[in-house]
Design brief:
2 domains, seven-stranded mixed beta sheet, Nucleotidyltransferase, domain 5, alpha/beta, single chain, 402 residues, 12 strands, globular
């Protein structure tokens, strides 16, 4: 099965093409024919965060060029071709994309010049995320599905992060041009820690496509807290990588020095439940900064202690949940899963708790927002769920839950 996947939930315009085969029982393989991501970081950087209206505008500008790159990389474009769009379909496309005039113009200029690609379905993120951004991707998917006469599979963004943690590069399949991944063999029940800019949650899964969220953040997500603290420290957006770099610099210095003085709270670490809260930690950093100059040494020390505080909370809650729910595997996914300190600490604590628990983290290339994970989730829905979706009923759901 060949899937074209689209992801526009925040500030990454992403299109991927996957050739998928197998079943979870016998083994699932994904040949990534294309994985194109256009980042908007440079645009939002001066604001220290993502502006929904700007994200929406950039998705409208970039979806067609990103699609074109994906099709060309996967060698699905035939030049000097003219695809006829009927007047009726053109009217429907104009209605679907009536709020995106630039995207409509690019769509009608490019799509008729290529042959219908050999894809069996279109996958698209429909939530959670920024609703204006989500709508652009959804409507683009609807227009493509109408022209090419293929079904749409709407996918939960967080479910994509869930499955990204199960992806493992398959080096046994020789392919010079493309990379192949498979779904790792796991046993249920399993626990997933999903941490990103907008979400921090613990999810228990007892079977494929079955989820129970047992804990979530009550205010700021971990990634959001990283961004806000980075801004306080004068570090660039996105804050996660910047804080990680400063924390690593402090660790290198600490081997020569006496250590550090500042100590931040570990909010809700011992609350007895699986909820999270990072707004108090952010406030603690703000108060600790008052009256102090942001010297390089102070920035590195604060970054280190902040990262340690977040890691302590996330790891301790995850270990406690793994014990209580007697899971056989723990997954780590989402943008913050790229943080080496978090990944190493969780792996070490799990091994000390029970070496028989399988630990799997998303490959670094799939930790951030990407369309590959959306295509992976779509294929598993197609194989296991086999539900037919009416394109007209697919809507953007900014607060969608797993």
């Amino acid at each position: 099965m060949k899937i074209l996947a689209i992801e526009t939930s925040c500030d990454e315009t992403a299109v991927a093409i996957l050739e998928c085969s197998g079943t979870p029982k016998d083994g699932v393989n994904f040949r990534v024919g294309a994985n194109i991501i256009h980042s908007q970081v440079a645009i939002h950087q001066e604001y220290g965060g993502v502006f929904p209206s700007l994200a929406k505008r950039e998705h409208s500008r970039n979806l067609v060029p990103v699609l074109k790159q994906a099709l060309q990389k996967n060698e699905l474009v035939i030049s000097d071709f003219r695809f006829q769009i009927s007047d009726l379909k053109k009217q429907k496309i104009e209605k679907i994309l009536d709020r995106e005039p630039e995207l409509l113009e690019q769509f009608l200029r490019y799509i008729p010049t290529i042959e219908k690609p050999n894809v069996d379905a279109i996958a698209v993120t429909y939530g959670p995320g920024l609703e204006p951004a989500l709508w652009v991707g959804i409507n683009f998917a609807k227009a493509l599905a109408l022209v090419w006469d293929v079904p749409i599979i709407p996918i939960n963004h967080m479910e994509g992060h869930f499955f990204s943690a199960l992806l493992k590069k398959n080096d046994t399949i020789p392919d010079i041009q493309h990379t192949t991944y498979n779904i790792q063999k796991i046993h249920f029940p399993l626990l997933a820690l999903l941490v990103s800019g907008g979400h921090t949650e613990l999810v228990v899964s007892r079977d494929w496509l079955s989820y129970e969220r047992i804990g979530e953040t009550r205010d700021d997500a971990a990634g959001e807290a990283f961004d806000k603290v980075a801004r306080m420290l004068g570090l660039p957006y996105p804050g996660g990588p910047a804080i990680a770099r400063e924390a690593a610099r402090f660790q290198r210095q600490e081997t020569r020095d006496k250590g550090h003085v500042v100590r931040f709270p570990r909010p809700m670490k011992d609350s007895g439940d699986f909820g999270f809260s990072f707004s108090g930690l952010k406030t603690a950093v703000l108060y600790a900064l008052k009256g102090r100059g942001r010297t390089p040494a102070l920035v590195a020390e604060f970054a280190y202690e902040f990262q340690e505080a977040v890691t302590d909370v996330l790891v301790s809650k995850t270990i406690r949940a793994a014990k209580e729910y007697d899971v056989r595997a723990v997954l780590l996914g989402g943008g913050v899963s790229a943080n080496t300190r978090l990944k190493d600490a969780l792996g070490e604590k799990l091994a000390a708790h029970d070496p028989d628990i399988r630990f799997a983290a998303a490959p670094r290339e799939f930790t951030g927002d990407n369309a590959v994970m959306i295509g992976v989730a779509a294929y598993l829905h197609a194989v296991l769920n086999q539900q037919k979706y009416d394109p007209g009923e697919i809507t953007a759901q900014g607060t969608l839950r797993m």
